[in-house]
Amino acid sequence: MPHHDFKPLSLMSAGAPNANADTEHWTPLPWADSPRYDARSVLPHWPRLHAGHELPLPAEGSALAEGWALYHSGEFERAAAIGLQQGAEGMALANQATAIYANYLEPRESIRLAMFRQVIERAGAQAAAEPDNCQALYWQSYALGRYSQGISVARALAQGLGSKLKGALERVIELQPRHADAHLALASFHAEVIDKVGALVGRMTYGVRSETSIELFERGLELHPHSAAGMMEYARAQLMLHGESRMGEATRLYEKAAELKPADARERLDVELARAGLRD
């Protein structure tokens, strides 16, 4: 079981710190047996693939359908490129592909952080223009969270990133009450802030509470019971909030995540991460 003071989750080890994200090819998915989709076959699986956050179904045969098929097949670089070519309509695809790739597969810490900053900027600009755009708000907050872990949560809180992240996630849930991923991300935020600054300071300064974290996790997993990522985050939160006394429950959550059958490349990454955590 990994230590609860986790850094950005990645299956790759750190490498050259000064590589250029714009000219280097992205690391490919390391498994050939992950689920594969094309622009037609991705559509019948859409509700399952997007159980964590509702997203309009792209038109059959469209560039966006092809882009999403590439994303769910683990072709993150090609998916992000197609998303960027589609302008505002493709921004959710571009941001999701970039953020998920950076989180799990990018081996260079400086490039990972640069990619998160790209997503923060792109999603932030879209959210400023479209204040009720849940996808923009969610991917801005996702990238803010992972970027904050990369530079240290304490430093991120001092820069005001925590309040920005919390506000974005609360707005997503207000606009889309069944957005499971937003519930899980906000739950993780509550737990991690308490872990870093303590329950009293966390409550008074950032409005976070242990019981709120648990309620959000339970609701998020009720909405998306196949979320291996949510199970792992809940496991870490148990340790952050309650210490080693919850190691048994945390281990059970990791075991459950490791046993899931992944529906796409991102879920395959989560399952492999859970298995790696159990080996540690």
TrEMBL record:
InterPro entries: TPR-like_helical_dom_sf. It comes from the Bacteria. This is Uncharacterized protein. It comes from Variovorax gossypii.
